[in-house]
Amino acid sequence: MPGQLYKSAAIVGAAEANEIGFLAEPKTSLELHIEAIKNLSNQTGVPISKIEGVFSTGWSSELCEHLGIKPKYIDTTAVGGCSFEMHVHHAMAAIHSGIIDIALVTHGENGFSARKIGGRGTGNYGRGAGVASPAAEMSMAYGLGSAPSNYAHAMVRHMHRYGTTTEDYAHIAKVTRDWATLNPRAAMYSKEKHPFGGPISVAQVEESRLIAWPLTILHCCMVADHGGAVLIASPKVAAGLNTKPVWLAGAGESMGHANMLEMEDFTATSASRSAEAAYTMAGMGPGEMELAMIYDSFTITAAITAEMLGLAAPGEGHTLWKDGHAAPGGRLPINTNGGGLSFQSQWHVRYAVADRGISSVVRHGRRWRAWRRWQTDQCKNLYRQWHRWSSVYNRDAGVGGGRLRASPLEVFLQLRDLQIEVALSDPLIAINPVILDDGS
């Protein structure tokens, strides 16, 4: 039996910024937000002034000021790439309670353009959990200061436990690119649109540039420019619009950890609990799913999440792609727009590995020196090496931003004399499912 919030609200519109991808002319994150919201308003016929609730990762107040909105409800939940599924869940609750009838969920991020206009492309998910947090101090000194280094450890652990290989995960990138070649809006739609676009092979994924072993660049999502917005409405409002509503059948959220060192199982995430909540609300189960849009910051993210969602057995998530089930024509299409791997960037992923990974060790060197009994000359040596190795990171244009000329593994091997140990740990993956029903 469905839960209380079942079909209590519907998505009545979805729109993007005018241009997305690797933009020739840079834009700010705010511009991408505003373009998407304006296009959403035009699509649905709902004036911006009628929006009653604004949901974003820390942008809500500024957006209200720019758009002249006097909201009844504001949400700035910011927990990474799954924030927006949480926003949908929260909007459902606010609408069901009668507080609002129309909710805006929006995000804009200039991950690519930021490099051209003075930013670092590091993303912004509100205060806290930054380099000064106690949790970060316990992990960043080990080189775990960026998403690729975190997820790389998850992949290694998954391979160790289940006997999977990087080639298994490469099928995820290959199939996801196949979907992108069917979507003209995808950044990697074709070589005409982007030099690295068009179909790719499993071998190309495996042989592409190393980012954080064992992740090569084609195992990683892109860092591009994108703005997107959806409008969620009550049944009363939805009935009066010309757009066809997509009813929200179920949603759920959960959290397992914020810092990798707190993760109980490196190959399992809180998505299992959030999925159970969403299935319960919808009165459905994983066997009834006909399509899935799974957060794919990295290929390993998609594989593990598929397992947590009950779409595959533990250790077998990759088989959905490898055996063709998730591909065009398969029984369970996954990420049909091309996903974060080939359509557009996923919001929180940044892989300036050389820049952030090593410099974070430098910033926290003094604190760790006392605990690890480092000698003063060793810390000075680390600082000197940072200046010398900073030249390996060249911020030229390309897939994922700067070009890494020395792999993190090579840098680590040069740092081993400082006795820096790499902790085997897991990524921050907290996918929060939203189950949709188009009413058919």
Describe it.
The protein is α+β, with helices and mostly antiparallel strands and 440 residues long. The protein has helices at residues 29-44, 60-67, 83-96, 134-137, 147-162, 166-180, 202-207, 235-238, 271-282, 299-308, 319-322, 339-343, 353-363, 365-372, 376-389, 408-415, and strands at 10-16, 53-55, 73-75, 102-110, 210-212, 215-216, 225-233, 246-251, 393-394, 403-404, 434-437. The chain is built from 16 helices and 11 strands. Strand 5 and strand 6 (215-216) form a beta hairpin. Helix 6 (166-180) packs across helix 10 (299-308). Mean pLDDT is 78; it is low at 121-129, 346-380 and 382-431.
Mean pLDDT: 78
Task: State the end-to-end distance.
Answer: 18 Å
Radius of gyration based on Cα positions: 22 Å
Strand content: 5-15%
Shape: globular
Which strands sit side by side, in order, in the main sheet? 3-2-4-7-1-8-11
Given helix and strand content, the structural type is: alpha+beta
Largest sheet: 7 strands, mixed
Helix content: 25-40%
Count of β-strands: 11
Low-confidence stretches: 121-129, 346-380, 382-431
SSE succession: EHEHEHEHHHHEEEHEHHHHHHHEEHE
Number of helices: 16
